[in-house]
Amino acid sequence: MLDDVMAILASTPDKLRREIAQMSTKEIKTRPAPEKWSVQEILAHLDDVEEIGMRARVAAMIEADNPLLPSFDQEKRAEERKYSRKNPTESLASLSRQRKANLKWLRKLKPSQLKRRGTHQKVGELSVRELVTEWAFHDLSHLRQILELKRYALYPRIGNMRAYYKLY
Ligand code: NI
Questions:
Q1: Where would you tag: which of 1, 119, 139, 144 has the fewest CB atoms within 10 A of its CB?
Q2: How many A from CA of 139 to the centre of ligand 1?
Q3: The whole model's pTM is what?
């Protein structure tokens, strides 16, 4: 079930590891713009929402009929949980551990469970299948964000070739 989605979910921790392997601590901690998260904050966010945004929501939909899935303010949560002070290596290790356990759990879901539904406080009704798919989509969004950040860092060094590119 959902083979393409599961493959993305399984590959994310290694992709993240590869993307940050050559980055300096300073690069990892630097925000590309005042309102945009650093790699450090992105990793802390992924580790944090793995439970609250993803696993706990799917579990709620399986355990109850059409539960309300509360939304949360991710910027506020980043402040409260001090994402900008989290150790990036630890965030990534924690995400990897959670992800492994979650994949094992997701692979045991039955087709009938994928059809179960819940109601997200902000966006409305969702099925388990849609939420699990969004889980992978969310991974890719943040991987892309990290690539953008690396692209942004190289931009000042490409001289007149800047004429060909736009940032963000
Ligand atoms: Ni996110």
A1: 144
A2: 8
A3: 0.94
Residue type, 1: M
Measure 3 CA to ligand 1 centroid, in angstroms.
Answer: 22
Q: Which helix (H) or strand (E) holds 101?
A: helix 88-107
In angstroms, what is the span from residue 141 Cα to ligand 1's centroid? 7
**123 vs 113: CA distance, rounded Å:** 21
State the distance from the centre of ligand 1 to the C-alpha of 108, rounded, in angstroms: 25
Structure tokens at 20: 């940050």
Nearest 5 degrees, angle CA 143-CA 57-CA 130? 65
| Ligand 1 centroid distance, CA of 121 (Å) | 17
pLDDT digits (tens, 9 = 90+) for 74-127: 899 999 999 999 999 999 999 999 999 999 999 999 999 999 999 999 999 999
CB 40 within 8 Å of CB 84: yes
Which domains can be identified in the chain, with CATH numbers? Answer: 3-164 (1.20.120.450)
How many alpha carbons lie under 13 Å from residue 26 in its C-beta half-sphere? 1
Six token digits for residue 19: 């993307």
